[in-house]
Amino acid sequence: MKIDFKERTPQLIAIIGVLVLVLAVALVYIVSKNKQITTMEQQFTVDKQELEDEYEAISMQYEGFKFSVQNDSLLYKLENEQAKVQRLQEQLRMTDAANKAEIKRLRDELATLRKVLKSYVQQIDSLHRLNTELQAKNEQITQQYQQTSRTLNQVSQEKEQLSEKVTLASRLDATGITVKAVNDRGREQKRLSRSSQFVVSFLITKNITAEPGERTIYVRIMSPDGGVLTKNPGSTFPFENGNLQYSIRRIVEYGGEEIPVTMYWDIEEFLMPGTYKADIFADGSLIGSRSFAMED
Q1: pLDDT for residue 36
Q2: What per-residue confidence (pLDDT) applies to 229?
């Protein structure tokens, strides 16, 4: 049987046309599908990158807390939470962008991390507010303490000044002081060679604020060379922050009224000519002085 190709040509052309059309449709579909896959892969990469950025942001927030949180217990918890974030960051870095299940799990973990972070932020804000309040209270207390201290110091100074005034007001005072040298007959002399005694006379003035009772009066006679006339080196009395030697001592009864006092020094040693000085003390204070000159 002989085949007539002329009769089959239209059929072949039709078949070839169909095949070309099917091939064109398949090609368009494949190209479109590849574009979709490429777009999805790009989107997966973008989504993963965004997720990594969010993890990094949370990690940096925890890092920042280290410089503002002073509570050791809370700081320890924050460091543990940051370590957890960093472990999940590493897992995300090792995860393929197209692994939807793992990416979803890590995204869910991120949501939990945000809630935890929010709770810590609230705790830190609360601690900061409390610390601010405590600082303000401490400043207030410090100011009150300083004010109280200033007031107490002022009161103390006023009390001390008043005490000094009372002490000064009640202090004895010696007036009308005379010092003379006399011989054995009680006659005044100008020469040491003719003298046997120094006679120190004075009045203790009236002072109604002074406490009545016995008073010990000390007379300290100083020679021209600065030495103190004394019969015993151990004859001393307290004065200010130390002790002074005295020449003569006498106990008198003082009742607030003016009283005369006379004290004597027997000249038993060699004395040089010049200016002598007699200082009178009572109640730990210098109450009078008198200088006098003696010839050889």
Answers
A1: 62
A2: 95
Above pLDDT 70, what percent of the chain?
Answer: 86
Residues of the chain with pLDDT under 50: 1, 165
Tokens of 217: 């009066």
For residue 52, how many other CB atoms are within 10 A of its CB?
Answer: 15
- What CA–CA distance (Å, rounded) separates 230 from 221? 8
Measure the CA–CA gap between 260 and 178, rounded to whole angstroms.
12
| Tokens representing residue 262 in the block | 């006379």
One-letter amino acid at 15 equals I
Q: Three-state DSSP class for 212?
A: coil
- The secondary element (H helix, E strand) that includes residue 253 is strand 248-254
String of DSSP letters for 136-168: HHHHHHHHHHHHHHHHHHHHHHHHHHHHHHHHH
Q: What size, in residues, is the chain?
A: 296
- How high is the pLDDT of residue 169? 56
